Amino acid sequence: MNISELSIKRPILATVMNLFLILFGVIGFTFLGIREYPAIDPPVITVSTSYTGANADITESQITEPLEKSINGIPGIRTITSTSSVGRSNINVEFNIDVNLEAAANDVRDKVSQAVRNLPQDIDAPPVVTKSDANSDFIILMAVQSQTKGLLEMSDYAENVLQNKFQTIPAECV
Q1: What would the pLDDT profile of 32-89 be if each residue is shown by its tens digit?
Q2: What is the DSSP string of 120-152?
Q3: Domain spanning 44-136: which CATH class is it, in words?
Q4: Entry pTM
Q5: Are 60 and 84 contacting, i.e. CB atoms less than 8 angstroms apart?
Q6: How far is it, in rounded angstroms, from Cα 82 to Cα 69?
Q7: H-state helical runs in 31-132
Q8: DSSP code of 160?
């Protein structure tokens, strides 16, 4: 006896088996992994400070740590990473994906402006807060050289000819 005969002889059993298949399909679909969404870059805010003449330890203790403590209270932060080198402090603040980049940048600016009074008075400039936008990265980076043309002629050719040709490439060709 095959499944066709069984379904014809017992239609209620066939209906129940189909309902079970549909139920297991729906349950399986809800637990299915999502892979076809695009890669999403999380909002990242960078705080850079310059302190000429200070070694890495002084930069760490007098600039990086006070700024980190101030920034740490902002809601939605995923990770904070910092580097302190001779005369330079960089703090990268990564937020959760659901956080608005503009709102996060404003929150970081507010906290940094509050922490400025705890920083040394002789720093070169106030800390600079920048947003990292994935769309502002280079798509292509080229080097153009010639045996016969000079540097000025090559840069003019690259800006006026090559750049225009690359900008007019249709999107479906990329």
Answers
A1: 776 666 666 778 899 999 888 888 888 898 888 989 999 988 888 899 999 988 889 9
A2: -TT-SSPPEEEEE-GGGS-S-------SSS-HH
A3: alpha beta
A4: 0.56
A5: yes
A6: 12
A7: 56-59, 65-71, 101-115
A8: I
